[in-house]
Amino acid sequence: MKGHSLPSPPAPESPRPSSLSSAEVFPEIWRPRKSQDEAASPADPGTLKLRESGTSYVQSVHWEAILTKIRGLKEDVITDSKAPRGSHLFYGPNRHATRDEILAAVPPRPVVDRLMALHFDSYHITPYLIHGKKFLREYETFWKDPSATSIAWIGLMYPMLYIAAQLQTFTIDITDGQAESLKAEYLTMKDAFREKAVQCLILARYTTGGPYILETLIMVLTGEFVLLKDGATDGWLLISMILHLAMRMGYHRDPDHFPGISPFEGEIRRRIWLTILQLDLVLSLEMGLPRSATDRHIDTKQPRNLRDCDFDEDTTEMPPPRPETEWTPVLPLIARGRLISALGLICDVNTDINPPSYDKVIEVDALLKDVHDRAIPPILRWETMPHPITDSPTLVVQRVSVETTYYKARILLYRRALISYPARQSQERDMESVRICLDSALKILSFQQMLHEESQPFGRLCQLRWKVTHIFNQDVLLATSVLCLYLQDVDKFELPETAGQTTRSPRAEEIRQRLTISHKIWLQMSTASAEAGKVAKALSIVLGNTEASAEDGSGHASYDFLTDFDAIPLNEFGATFNNQYFPSGFYSPLTFFDNVLETRGT
Fold first, then answer.
1. CA 26 – CA 344 distance, rounded (Å)
2. Which candidate, 9, 4, 597, 594, places its Cα nearest to that of 295?
C-alpha cells in the first residue's frame, strides 16, 4: 500500500506562547525540494515484518532496522521469539469489579503507607502528575471514609501501589536467604494492584475523561512500559489513546483561554500535558513510527519552575517561577520539554517519506544545538557542572538523561548518511554527517559504561539501578547499532582528517574497544531483556566474538563488571566516581510518608 501525502495546513496566525512550532521554524521542511544528492539516495522505506503472530513496521532510523544490515545476523534473532505479555488494559482478564470488591482489596494502611512512601521517594514521573499537598489531603480523606471517595481517585492510588511493589522487587538483596519468597510476594501484590487499577478505570468509564483519569492512565502506561520495557507496541498505542483523550479534554489548549479553570488547575494541566507530549515522542521514537502530536494543534504553555509548596488549590494568582538555577522536581520536565521542539521536528523529518535537504538538516541541527546550549538550565547540563559528591544520584541521572537525549537526536538527524554512504554523491557532506553520528554514539556509550559501573554494588547509583537499566536502554541501543554498522563496513568509510582539525575523528580501534565493553554490559542485561540479547548477538558478530554467540540472548550470561576488566576512566566527564566511598545506603532510604513531599518543598 502506497502512502499518500496531504498538503500541510497553513501555519497558525500567532506563534505558540512557549515555543515556535516546527512549521513556523522551517515552513518548507515538510515538502522539501529534492536536490541532486537526494535524487541518488531515495528515502529508505523502512522494514516490514510479516509473521503469523502479527505484522510490524519500523522506519529505517530504528535500531532494529539498522541491525538488519548486519551481515550474519539471522532474522530470527532480530524478531522476538515470543510476544510480550502486553498491556493489562488491553489483554488482562479485566473482570468487572464492584466498588465494594475494589475497596476490600486495599491493604491495611501501614502497608499502603510504606508503599506510597517508596513511590514518592523513587518515581521521578509522579511530581509531573500529582500535586503533593493536594494528594496528601485526599489521601487522609480516603482513610477517614473510603466509601465516599471517587472510584477514579482510588484508581489513581492502585497503579501507584503497583509501581511501588515493582520498584521493591528491584531493591531486594539477592544475598538474603528469603529474597526469592519476598520477591514472589511483591510480584503477587503487584499483579493484584495492576488488575484493580484497570478495574477502577473501567468502572469510572475512563474513555469519557474526568478527574484523575489521565493521571491514572499515565501511571498504568509508565508502570508497564517504562519499568518493564520489552514490548512497547501496546505502550505506543496506549499513549496515542491518552493523547487523544487529553485533547478531547482540552489539554492541548492553554488554560488561560478558559476562565473556568483555576490558576492551580491550569498549572497542573500544563504539567500533565507536557508529560504526555514527551511520552508520545519517546515511545514513537522507540517504535520507529510517527508521533501523534504535532505543533499545529497545540498552544499550551510550558509549566512554571515551581515547587508544590509555592501554590495550592486556593491560589488566586500564580507566583513567578523560581530561577532555573534552582532545582525543583519539575525542572527536568521543563528542560526536556524544550528539547521537544527540536527532537519532535527530527522525529517528523525521519518519518517523512520525502527526506529533507542537507541544508535543512543543518538548520534543524542548529536549532537543536541552540536549545541544548542556551535553553537547558545549567544545573541540568553535564558539561557545565563540576559533579561534586554532594550532588544527589537522582540529579546525576537527570543530567545524563538530558545529554543522551541530545546525542540521540543528532544520531537520528544524521544517520541517513551512515546508512546510504556508498550511494551518495556529496561525500564531503556525508563524511561530516558520519563523524557526527560516530561522535554522538561514542558519547552515549561513554555514559552507558559510567552508569553501569556506578550502578553496581557500592556504586554511587546503586539504589537507582532500575532507572539506569530502564531509562537509557533505547538511546544506547541506537548508538550501539550505529557503531556496529560502521565497524562492519569500516573500509568503505574513508574519514581522513580535515585540514586544521584539532581533534582526531573516531577510529575503528577506539570504536571496537568501546563496543567490546558495551558487549559485556549487554550480555549481562540479556538475561532480563530480549532487546539486550539482540544487540549482544549483533556485537558478537561484528566483533568476531564467536565464543560468546551461544550465550547472546539465549542463555544465562553473568560476570562481575568490576573485576572482568579494569575500571573505566571517566576523565572526560570531569570526575571519577570511586565505588568504595559510596556505601549502598548513600541514596536516601525509605522515609516516612508524611515527610516525603514537604521535605522536597523546603
1. 13
2. 9
Residue 164 in grid coordinates: 511501588
Strands (E) located in 181-228: none
320 close to 276: Cβ distance less than 8 angstroms? no
| Mean pLDDT score, 20-47 | 46
Instruction: Give CA–CA dist 64/47, Å, rounded.
Output: 9
Cβ(411)–Cβ(478) below 8 Å = yes
Backbone dihedral region for residue 241 (phi beyond 0: left; psi -120 to 50: alpha; all else: beta): alpha
Backbone angles phi, psi at 310, to 5 degrees: -80, -20
Q: What is the dihedral of CA 481, 418, 515, 540, to 10 degrees?
A: 60
Alpha-helix runs per DSSP H in 371-498: 393-419, 427-454, 465-471, 473-488
Q: Which of 248, 164, 191 is nearest to 214 (CA)?
A: 248
Q: What is the pLDDT of residue 426?
A: 60
Residue 48 main-chain phi, psi, to 5 deg: -115, 125
Burial class of 554 by CB neighbour count within 10 A (0 to 12, 13 to 18, 19+): middle
Q: What is the pLDDT of residue 100?
A: 94
The closest alpha carbon to 404, from 449, 465, 351, belongs to 449
DSSP H or E stretch at residue 56: strand 54-58
State the burial class of residue 253 (Cβ atoms within 10 Å of its Cβ: 0-12, 13-18, 19+): middle
Q: Which spans in 304-422 are helix H?
A: 331-351, 358-370, 393-419
Residue 5 scores a pLDDT above 70: no
Q: Which residues contact 98 (CB under 8 A, 6 or more apart)?
A: 203
Q: Is 119:153 a contact under the CB 8 Å cutoff?
A: no
Enter the C-alpha cell of residue 67. Answer: 541491525
